Amino acid sequence: MGSDRMEVIRRDITANKMIKMNRLFTKLMSRNFWLKSIYRLFTYVLLMDLAFIFLFPFIHMLVTSLKTPLDVLDITVKWVPRSLYWQNYTRALKALDYGTTFINSVIITTLGTIGHVISCSFAAYGFARYRFPLRNFLFTIVLITIIIPVQVVIFPLVIQYSNMGWLNTHLPLIVPTFFGFGLRGSLFVFIFHQFFLGLPYELEEAARIDGCGAIRTYWKIVLPVANTSVLVCTVLSMVWHWNDYFEPSIYLMKPQKLMLPAKLPTLYQNLEALSKQAASPEMEIIYNEAIVMAATFLVILPVLIVYLILQRKFMEGIERSGLVG
Amino acid sequence: MKGKLRLTMNQKTKLEGYFFILPWLIGFIAFFAMPFFKSIQLSFSKITKIAGFEMEWIGWQHYAKAFTWDVYFVPMFINTMRNTLITIPLTVVFSLFIAILINRNIKFKGFFRGAFFIPVLLGTGFVMKQLLGMNVQNQAIEVAMGIVMPDEILNYLGPDIAAYVTEFMYRITLIFWRSGVQVVLFLAGLQSIPNSMYEAARCDAATEWEMLWKITLPMITPVISLNCIYTLIDSFTDVNNPIVDYILDMGFKSVQYEYAAAMSWIYLLFVFIVVILIFVIFRRFSYDSKEG
Predict the structure, then answer these.
(1) Which architecture characterizes domain B70-124+178-291 according to CATH?
(2) Cα-Cα-Cα-Cα dihedral sign, residues B5, B11, B15, B16
(3) DSSP class of residue A257?
(4) Which residues of B touch A289 (CB under 8 A)?
(5) What is the DSSP string of A259-296?
(6) Alpha helices, DSSP H, located in A66-149
(7) pTM of the predicted model, to two decimals?
(8) Looking at residue B290, what is its pLDDT?
């Protein structure tokens, strides 16, 4: 009896296998399947290839920055350095004056980003939720200011700041962000505005009925709900502030006020000055591709780390923020 | 009584609205409107005293100078115009292509999405300049092209076409690196197209290609125009934009603020024309798609 059942089950299994094999066979024979897999393979190869182009700067920076001076000259050493040469980094840290410039960059980036998130969402909330005279006109101005580059107004702006005594301080880079301007501020107003338009009224109405004031509604209800937009604006504002070169290079001249990327173009002179100061054989000037890449990598490293932490949520945020919907 | 109450409510909300945009308005006046009008005035005048910012009206002289006297300005301006007009469509087409590729049902979606945004971290400033100084973009495309298109094909095509292709590819790499934000915006746009549309089209036996032209593109038109404008404003900060460098040198190195302001106004005029052009083109397109 038992062996009979076993027999039945075995037959079932073999039948099943046959069916599966049969299916696989027909699948393999069909033209459509092959076309599809070739197409799929091609898509992946293309995607990997494109991703390589996008990742290459980072790979190149990392690989080159660890090469010894000999490796740099040796064309057979392309992808893997013979040994890891960390001296490039120690030299680059000194040449970039990393302690001072890093702190300057962090101050400007953090305050600028906070300013953008608070002031831009504040103004955008006003534009999206309240109807008042001149609203459309003023919002048109917001859109126009997105298009007009700083370069057009930079000369009177510099004269204005120098009259205010703000040159060579971080104020011209930080204060405008708290008023919805600064580095692409209007763009952030626009992003928040688009998000608030898609937000249902009910939440705020409920808060208002419970006696919540306008500012409290904004701060306690609207801003927490808008966390995806806040994240998108934080990441963009942070990256742009960190890498900005145009305005800092005009407002900041004193070495102790410079931002991190501003040290890159004068890397060679910095190294030269350092070697003169030290006057010792181990601090001789070695200026090659490796040290430049080490310095460049050090400049973008902080922002890279923060981005990698926020990356997943940022991507989801941008898809859900109704930015373009 | 009730009418009076409603009126005050109305007034109250209006006041609150103004309250919310007040910081922006202050910022607008202090950091934008004032310098903006000063800049217009500056381009028509001569500074007599830099301390009090006193100016004397001299009319169109600086504008005339840009076109008649300055031998560098006009060629540079034309060069920038040409670059901008080539870069915008290329950037938009390639970022849309990449976005559509990633938006398909593929594995490692997260990795690819992250990878395509990452060059944005390089910015457009000094870091990018160092990389370009090392010719990193050419090294990248050489390796990448070797996978898709072996050298043999290029050799077969002959030296002229091969040179043309490699030249094009070098240009494309830079465009790729600068299209991170655009790819992300397109992804957001593609996500917002309801899936039911594609399902309906599939029921009517539409091919992928037809769906691209009949559903995806018409639905994504607003994002395309947004991306065109973003690419345009992004090009101001490009290290390869010679005209901006020239204007700044004129302003800060040769201390000719007035002339530099006039040149930047000419540049802005061009930018405005492009923006209007983009709007006109896309208004037409979206109208057509509604009709069809």
Answers:
(1) Orthogonal Bundle (1.10)
(2) positive
(3) G
(4) 134
(5) -GGGGSTTHHHHHHHHHHHH-SGGG----SHHHHHHHH
(6) 69-73, 87-95, 98-129, 135-147
(7) 0.83
(8) 46
A47, B99 Cβ separation under 8 angstroms: no
For residue B64 the two structure tokens come to: 């005339």
Distance CA B72, CA A324 (A): 40
For chain B, the average pLDDT equals: 81
Best of A32, A63, A96, A155 to disrupt the B interface (most B CBs within 10 Å) is A155
- Measured in angstroms, the CA of A276 and the nearest CA of chain B are apart by 24
The angle subtended at Cα A89 by Cα A83 and Cα A91, nearest 5°, is 115
* Greatest mean pLDDT among A101-105, A179-183, B230-234, B245-249: A101-105
**Can you tell me the distance from the alpha carbon of B224 to that of A184, in angstroms, rounded to the nearest whole number?**
20
CA atoms of A50 and B239, how far apart (whole Å): 23
Comparing A224-238, B120-134, B184-198, B222-236, the range with the smallest average pLDDT is: B120-134
Rounded to whole angstroms, what are the CA distances from A153 to A150, B259, B266?
Answer: 5, 13, 13
Condensed to tens digits (0 to 9), the pLDDT of residues A31-48 reads 777 888 888 888 888 888
Q: Which phi and psi (to 5°) does residue B176 adopt?
A: -55, -50
Q: With a cut of 0.90, is the ipTM above it? A: no
Q: Domains (ranges, CATH) in chain A? A: 2-65 (no CATH), 89-320 (1.10.3720.10)
Closest CA to A64 of A302, A311, A303, A292: A292
| pLDDT, tens only, B109-127 | 888 888 888 888 887 777 7
A20: its two tokens:
């599966």
Rounded to a whole number of angstroms, the CA Rg of chain B reads 25
d(CA A230, CA A224): 9
User: Is B186:B95 a contact under the CB 8 Å cutoff?
Assistant: yes
pLDDT at B50 over 70: no
What letter does residue B44 receive in the DSSP assignment? Answer: T
Please tell me if residue B147 touches chain A, with a CB cutoff of 8 Å: yes
Task: Sort out which chain A residues have CB atoms less than 8 A from B146's CB and list them.
Answer: none
Contacts of A129 in chain B (CB under 8 A): 17, 20
Q: In a 3-state reduction of DSSP, which class is residue A74?
A: coil
Number of neighbouring beta carbons within 10 Å of residue A167: 18
- Record: contact A189-B113, CB cut-off 8 A: no
Burial class (CB in 10 A: 0-12, 13-18, 19+), B53: middle
Which residues on chain A are in Cβ contact (under 8 Å) with B18?
126, 132
Enumerate the β-bridge partners of residue B55.
B47
Positive or negative torsion for Cα B204, B205, B210, B213: positive
Interface test with A, best of B24, B55, B224 (most A CBs within 10 A): B24
Of A49, A130, A180, nearest to B148 by CB-CB distance is A49
Q: CA B7 from chain center: how many Å?
A: 45
From residue B38, alpha-carbon distances to A144, A179, B42, B45, B78 in Å are: 17, 20, 6, 10, 27
B136 close to A (CB below 8 A): yes
Higher pLDDT pick, B185 / A286? B185
